[in-house]
Amino acid sequence: ADGHQVSLVVLEGHAGSSPAVRLALPIEQVVLPVARPAKLGRCPGLANALRRLPRPDVYHVHGSWHMALSDAVTVAREQRVPVVLELMGSYSAYELARKPVRKWLARRLYQDATIAAVDCIHANSQPEADQMRRLGFKNPIAVIPVGTDVRSAPSPVVNDDLLEPAWSGRRWVMLKRDDWRLLIAGHGEPDYVEELKQQAIRLGVMNQCRFTGPVSAAQKDWAYANADGYILPSRQENFGNTVAEALAQGCTVGTTTGTPWRELEENGCGWVEDPTVTGIASLLRRMGATGQQEMREMGQRGRALVADRYSLPAVH
């Protein structure tokens, strides 16, 4: 929109992932397959694809652990083009503790050297920047949150398939009460989703839960705008896009200290608890004890917070 030419090079073919979304012009897009084994994230054609594109003013590389990202940084150094690397939470203490042997090897073989070679690290929050300093990286770090689309009014889209008619007029969150409902939207590993469903059955609350599976952007916005509250029960987030998305639709949010959203309580638009079963239970109790009028007022404050600090114009 600002008149910049954007070329997007994206990989597809990772296990458990959907095909790359094809974008329309004026964005020039190149979609490349990952080589097997896909978990290594190798793409033999990536370097040449980048060399064939017009020489850019800057490279912005997203993510880590995939070997193809190192190829992108190598091409940037070869062309003497500044390169910015957005880690997207992959170097948090929580993430480094997952599959630690594999990540220990990747860090020593190529990943740490790749990060050290970039001109700037793009962190989405101050805690993520602080973590990179603790790990010893000396690169300049730019803390830039994820920009959120804050429309003039909450989404008016209504989708009859998203919620059963019996839910109309009910409050949404999970409590052992007949007048509350829990909507679980999005995709997940099939075994994990089935485990959650079985747990809901064991707890006797399955009739109060709705597992929607993947939802469109319009359905998601509608769900945020019509829910009484949204909870992100995450152990770790470098930013937590869904928190900003929910606030932008005027939805009160509860999340954990594993996210960088302590300002929810500071600005009176949500709650933050420890990322434990006890902490999530406390979020549910606090949300359930809050009246609908107060929830609406909290939602309005949350929407104002996102517009002021995290909207696309504010981040730009």
Task: Give short descriptive properties of this protein.
four-stranded parallel β-sheet; 12 helices; 316 residues; alpha/beta
Sequence-ordered SSE layout with sheet pairings:
Blueprint: E1 7-12, E2 28-33, H1 46-52, E3 59-62, H2 67-79, E4 83-86, H3 93-96, H4 100-116, E5 120-123, H5 126-134, E6 141-143, E7 171-172, E8 180-185, H6 190-202, E9 209-213, H7 217-226, E10 229-232, H8 241-248, E11 252-256, H9 263-266, E12 270-273, H10 277-288, H11 292-309, H12 312-315
Parallel strand pairs: 1-2, 3-4, 4-5, 5-6, 7-8, 8-9, 10-11, 11-12
> Average pLDDT across residues?
90
Write down the secondary-structure element order: EEHEHEHHEHEEEHEHEHEHEHHH
Number of helices: 12
The 3D shape can be described as globular
User: What is the total tally of β strands?
Assistant: 12
Strand order of the largest sheet: 3-4-5-6
Which consecutive residue ranges, at least 5 long each, have pLDDT under 50?
none
Percent range for β-strand residues: 15-25%
Structural class: alpha/beta
Percent range of helical residues: 25-40%
The N- to C-terminal Cα distance equals: 12 Å
Largest sheet: 4 strands, parallel
- Global Rg: 21 Å
